[in-house]
Amino acid sequence: MDKQIKICILTSVHPPFDGRVFHKEAKTLVKAGYDVVLIAQHNKTEVVDSVKIIPLPKPRNRFERMTRVVWKLFRLALKEKADIYHFHDPELIPMGIILKLFHKRVIYDVHELVYFQIECKSWLKSQIIKRLIQQIYFLFEKLSTKSIDQFILAENGYERYFIQKYKNFKRYTIIRNFPILELIKNIKPLTINKQKPIIIYAGGLTKIRGIKEIIQSMEFIGEKAELWLLGKWESEEFKKECESLKGWRFTKYLGLKPLEEVYTYMKVADIGISILYPVKNYVTSLPVKAFEYMACSLPMVMSNFPYWEEIFGECALFANPYDPKEIAETIMKLLSEEDLRRKIGKKGRELIQNEYSWEREQKKLLDFYNKVIEK
């Protein structure tokens, strides 16, 4: 390109080295010749892999994040005088609309269907308040579809939602959140003296992600295996509730780990697990952790959603996410049949190699940016 285009990536929620935000999109854009600045919660200004990171303060609570931190982010963003602003969080929609008033080109990267997600927020106790927030959010989202230049949708299922909800929704592309195959290939397994088979879950440790039921299933499995949990708890209250379960005896909580380190744990595990509740935001989702398990050749136990059975049918077994005993029986079927584990783990890896890798998906990101610049 004749002039180096400056892109400012904005997030008030995600950590600076988030898999999609940093490792996939920011680094791909840098390699393509763009000048990339990332504004995110961090402790210092630094350049990592040619991406300049500008720190936001860590908020004390959710309200402060959505007010003081967002206002700080907006001021820092304007100072960058970027050619394109690419934001990742729904709470930044008003800021994106204001940036348009400053004649900036703006992209909204949609990670979740927030309208449905609001229904599952445990910190919102009242159904009336949830419905009120849904309506407020709907108004902002509707305004964004009319004013923001382009949308990136992280999953195929989001397309149907936006087209049905908003007339003439056309300014978008789908860029799925598949794993970086080359990164995973180059990471070595954790060095441990493994005593028993390992079931691993890596991701948000929340109620609607079935964490309680996964731990309860370990009560039926007992000493035959060990459950590893990696991620951040939704609350201290939920963590204590899980620690009080009988299955916690056979569970290890390993903390929140950087992306590369997570793969070292996956590579020594025997089964990956993804037991989400059948809420609207999940039943047609494509969980990135499932693809990461597949990239590490792990057979999986997953919720028995029809869409998941269609997509992951060759590389997983399925169970009712509300039934810990059925989850345990499904895990035990995999543990007792080594050939089956090997077969579906191998199939998952082949699908990543041939279809579901970031290496194949990143071309869509670069083509998308070329179109944004041309306009």
Concise synopsis of the structure shown:
The protein folds into 2 domains: 6-178 and 358-374, Glycogen Phosphorylase B (Rossmann fold, 3-Layer(aba) Sandwich); 181-354, 3-Layer(aba) Sandwich (Rossmann fold). The chain is built from 15 helices and 14 strands.
What does this structure look like?
- The radius of gyration is 21 Å and the shape is globular.
- Helix 3 (93-101) packs parallel to helix 5.
- It folds into two domains: 6-178 and 358-374, 3-Layer(aba) Sandwich (Rossmann fold), CATH 3.40.50.2000; 181-354, Glycogen Phosphorylase B (Rossmann fold, 3-Layer(aba) Sandwich).
- Helices cover 45% and strands 17% of the residues.
- The chain is α/β, with parallel strands linked by helices.
- The protein has helices at residues 19-31, 62-80, 93-101, 114-117, 127-147, 157-165, 181-185, 211-221, 236-243, 259-266, 288-295, 306-312, 324-336, 338-354, 358-374; strands at residues 6-10, 35-41, 46-48, 51-56, 84-87, 105-110, 150-153, 172-174, 198-202, 226-230, 251-253, 271-274, 300-303, 316-319.
- It has 15 helices and 14 strands.
- The strands form two sheets. The chain has an eight-stranded mixed sheet, with helices on both faces. Strands 11-10-9-12-13-14 form a six-stranded parallel sheet, sandwiched between helices.
